Amino acid sequence: MVTRRIVVSGLVQGVGYRYFAERVAHRLRISGYVRNQRDGTVEIVVQLKGGENIDSFLEALRQGPTAAHVRNVEMHSLEGFAEELSGFSVRL
Predict the structure, then answer these.
(1) DSSP of 40-88
(2) Separation of alpha carbons 71 and 11, rounded Å
């Protein structure tokens, strides 16, 4: 199992971005969560168990919902993440 942290910047808060990410993750069977950050970015944590289409997920995140203007999508490895995630949720 591999855990990744994705940070999305641009106009991504207040435009339905978290719920968009949740819908796409459910469709692609990706486990994790999404939440807004104080700096205006959106953080997404995903756990990949094998077989998930992370490339399709990242492409959808780059597009975003209609009202969003995505400037950048960065993905980093998240070492030492102890929580096991199942399903995908919006966290506040």
Answers:
(1) S-EEEEEEE-SS--HHHHHHHHHH--TT-EEEEEEEEE-TT--PPP-SE
(2) 8
What's the token pair of residue 18? 């978290």
**Nearest of 13, 7, 18 to residue 40 by alpha carbon:** 13
What's phi and psi for 6, nearest 5 deg?
-115, 130
Domain residue ranges of the chain, discontinuous segments joined by +: 2-90
Active site residues: 18, 36
The tens digit of pLDDT for each residue in 46-91 reads 999 887 889 999 999 999 999 999 999 999 999 999 999 999 999 9
User: Has this prediction a pTM greater than 0.85?
Assistant: yes
CATH class of 2-90: alpha beta
